[in-house]
Amino acid sequence: METIVTMTIIGIVATAAMNCFLWLITGLTQTQCDMVRAVGAIYTHDEKNSLLPGLIMQFTAGLIAAYVYGVFLEAFAWKASYAYAGMGLAMGLIHGIAVSIVLAKLLGEHHPVEHFQKVSTRSALAHVLAHMLYGFIIGAMYGTYMAF
To answer: What average pLDDT does the segment 63-72 reach?
Structure first.
């Protein structure tokens, strides 16, 4: 039970950090990276009412992914927490590339809100970096709280 609670907390922290990073990129640049509203708008077909459904979907997916990362990290028995952080970073890179490909294909062609149909290379890169941050946080927290 303790493992589930700890991985849930790790997943919430990592997902929140990833979303804050994407909101920061959206706010500081002209790049559309607000994945919370984009995911929420898939269900509401309206950007104005998309925040709550988007948050629910993002955190649900973030928690599920955290458990998957945890399963992979559990397979290693490293003696240093930075090794887990590095592994999380590498997994985040792979995860980010996969999400960016899906983002470009799914959102770029089929999103119901026109505002989210334009997916730029900078947006895809921001999502890769955001998922690397997500993986790094999961790995670092896993290595700190779960591995020893």
So the answer is: 96
- Determine whether 77 is exposed, middle or buried from the number of CB atoms within 10 Å of its CB (0-12, 13-18, 19+): exposed
Q: In terms of Cα–Cα distance, which of 6, 1, 148 is closest to 70?
A: 6
User: How far is Cα 145 from Cα 28, in angstroms, rounded to an integer?
Assistant: 34
Give the pLDDT of residue 114: 83
User: pTM here?
Assistant: 0.93
In angstroms, the Cα distances linking 94 to 29, 39, 99, 148 are 25, 20, 9, 26
Cα separation, 107 vs 127, whole angstroms = 13
Element (H, E) at 89: helix 81-102
Please tell me the total count of domains within the chain.
1
Q: By residue range, what is the domain housing residue 14?
A: 2-145
Contact 17, 137 (CB under 8 A): yes
